[in-house]
Target: Tc1-like transposase DDE domain-containing protein
Amino acid sequence: MQPLPLHSRKVTVWCGFTAVFIVDPFFFEEIGPSGPVTCTVDGTRYESLLRKQLIPALQQRGCVDSTIFMQDGAPPHIETPVKQLLNLHFGNDRIISRHFPRAWPPRSPDLNPCDFWLWG
Model:
């Protein structure tokens, strides 16, 4: 009999959506010797996701200029390269995040549209 693992399998995933479409889920993983392994989201990985996945998806649909970008204030979300990239594409007036003019509400219950509509 095989022993039960001490921890359940973990997944780190990001998904974005607008009123019109969903940006495909992105799984934060690295390829290890035995296949994909979940990795920690840091500022470099998050900035790469935005630069290579999200912004091209919005550009392809022609809606970067009308998108309001919302994120909480997790440390990877407010690293300098991430803030610079967001400012470049969305400007200060269309970003809701900590360290921007419109901050995510402090002590928010974190119930956002993803929590409500996407995950159920």
